[in-house]
Amino acid sequence: MNSKIEDKLAKYFSLTSLALKKVKIVENHRKQAEDLLDLAQRYFDDAKFFDKKGDLVNAFGAVCYSHAFLDVGARLGFFDVGKDNKMFMVD
After folding, report:
1. Contact indicator for 37, 16 with CB cutoff of 8 Å
2. Which of 25, 37, 43, 56 is the most interior residue, by most CB within 10 Å?
3. Domain that holds residue 20
4. Mean pLDDT by groups of 10 residues along the chain of 91 residues
5. 36 exposed, middle or buried (CB, 10 Å; 0-12, 13-18, 19+)?
6. Cα angle vertex 13, ends 40, 76, to 5°?
7. Which among 3, 7, 5, 1 has a CA at the least distance from the CA of 56?
């Protein structure tokens, strides 16, 4: 069971790391975008912390929350993600 969680966790760490680098803030939504990006980064950092402690369940939950904040920002038009519907829920 742990290997399945570890595999998924590695996948989401990679995906979310790339997504954090890809988002660009849309100027007329700067405040909202910065707030969501801050939350996404904090949850990503928490996920790494939990992973280092061996707490895979909380690490997985935190990385999923991190990516969800990025998806919300992209979906609401706060982030420009270049219509990337592979990495973000923008359709």
Report:
1. no
2. 43
3. 2-80
4. 87 97 97 98 98 96 98 96 91 80
5. buried
6. 35
7. 5
Domain containing 38 — which CATH number? 1.20.1270.90
Cα separation, 90 vs 49, in Å, equals 29
91 belongs to a structural domain: no
Total structural domains within the chain: 1
Structure tokens at 22: 């890809």
Q: At what angle do helices 30-53 and 2-22 cross, to 10 degrees?
A: 150
Q: Helix or strand or coil: residue 83? A: coil
Instruction: Tell me how far apart the 2 most distant CA atoms of the chain are, in Å.
Output: 45
What is the pLDDT, as a whole number, of residue 1? 60
Q: Please name the amino acid found at residue 88.
A: F
